[in-house]
Write a structure and sequence with these properties.
The protein is mainly alpha-helical. The chain has ten helices and no strands. Helix 3 runs antiparallel to helix 4, helix 4 packs antiparallel against helix 5 and helix 7 runs antiparallel to helix 10.
Length: about 270
């Protein structure tokens, strides 16, 4: 009987020590246990500390939505402002900035952001409908970019100026080539069985999204390099020029965040 009382005392003391060690002097639990706290099992905890994860934090959610809305406004605003500054119709060259801004600042940006899980003007459209809109936007990118290239070549020929002598022109050619290759990659995603591709559809989508991100970043660098051209520096000066220099970077950050969050593999993809 005495031995049983001693064992019971030791076990009670051990439980008490374990229970007290789990709490701070202020009574806050160090290791929250859902069985004791009564919290639902689907609550996500932050991997860097205690409390709820960032996805459940309303301010974080609204900041992400505001960033996506700002990316839409920036893409449309850049297109409109560049179109006004270039004064289309005054020369052959004046159509080049218009076509290229429509292609990359507007159509390519909207073609990617329509898949945004935060805010999208096409949120009521089904997944299949969004994919068709994506095709349409990217087709407009190819048409507008090819048209802009044609106006640029015609302007150079009329002015008898050499081609591909600036960093902007070289980056532009690389961007156009990458855009065409990305369009071909999109066709592979649409018709994998017809083309008899061995890779799985999931892997093809991952390749397509990754290449799309590279193309968009390359297009952003090309747009930024256009700010250093003689025409743009003669048109926009002072602090306004610095604002234009930074504006294309914001949609690029939003697009990069969207693609990496949606397609970053969390587990190994089987072929």
């Amino acid at each position: 009987m005495i031995m049983e009382l001693v064992q019971c005392s030791y076990s009670t003391r051990a439980v008490s020590l374990r229970f007290s060690a789990a709490f701070t002097p202020l009574g806050v639990c160090k290791y929250p246990d859902r069985r004791f706290s009564g919290m639902p099992s689907d609550v996500e905890y932050s991997p860097v500390g205690e409390g709820l994860g960032m996805r459940d934090f309303w301010l974080y959610v609204w900041l992400r939505r505001a960033a996506v809305i700002a990316a839409h406004v920036t893409g449309l605003g850049l297109t409109l402002i560049i179109s006004l500054l270039s004064r289309p119709g005054t020369s052959l060259f004046s159509w080049h900035p218009v076509c290229m801004s429509v292609a990359y600042c507007l159509c390519m940006t909207e073609g990617i952001l329509l898949f945004s899980a935060e805010v999208s003007p096409f949120c009521f459209v089904s997944r299949k409908g969004k994919i068709r809109l994506h095709w349409f936007c990217q087709a407009l990118v190819l048409i507008a970019a090819a048209t802009g290239l044609g106006f640029m070549v015609a302007s150079k020929n009329v002015s008898e100026l050499p081609h591909l002598v600036t960093w902007h022109s070289l980056l532009g050619i690389c961007t156009l080539a990458a855009t065409a290759l990305q369009a071909a990659c999109g066709v592979c995603v649409i018709f994998p069985k017809l083309l008899r591709l061995s890779s799985s559809p999931l892997r093809l989508k991952l390749y397509h999204a990754t290449c799309g991100l590279v193309v968009y970043l390359l297009a952003t660098v090309t747009v930024v390099s256009a700010m250093f051209s003689d025409w743009f520096q003669a048109t926009v000066k002072g602090l306004t020029w610095w604002a234009f220099l930074l504006l294309p970077l914001f949609p690029a950050l939003v697009v990069m965040n969207q693609i990496t969050n949606a397609y970053l593999p969390r587990k190994k993809i089987t072929s």
